[in-house]
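Give me the 3D structure for SSU ribosomal protein S1p.
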Amino acid sequence: MKILDLNEEEGRVSLSLKATTPGPWDGVEQKLAKGDVVEGTVKRLTDFGAFVEVLPGIDGLVHVSQISHKRIENPKEALTVGQEVTVKVLDVNADAERVSLSIKALEERPAQEEGQKEEKRAARPRRPKRQEKRDFELPETQTGFSMADLFGDIEL
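Predicted structure for SSU ribosomal protein S1p (156 residues):
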């Protein structure tokens, strides 16, 4: 037992048995490390990701961008609550009680996707190269000048 509070005026002592038992985050660095591959259960889905229980009492976040190589708008498109998944640990922050996880880090990037990106790059028209710089002399007048005075001889 641990003494939480001692109030001599009222003659009361507050005790806690729970405070003597280690919490799930105590020593988590020895149980879970960056780069580990573990099994987990999807516990909760949000708009920004899925919380996966990787150890009893410890849930990690698989951000929506870490679920799949394909673009996913909402984790519900790929995962369901209660689903067993294999995840890679990206980061463990015991002080903040946060674990970052990834599913796509364990999957091979589809070769087809890379080819499509290259096709998109090749199909995009390129800008024409800039012509070398020219030196212009501005007319010395009090009334100003027009753009035609400066660039009238340039063909587009």
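The chain has a mean pLDDT of 80. Let me know if you want a second pass.
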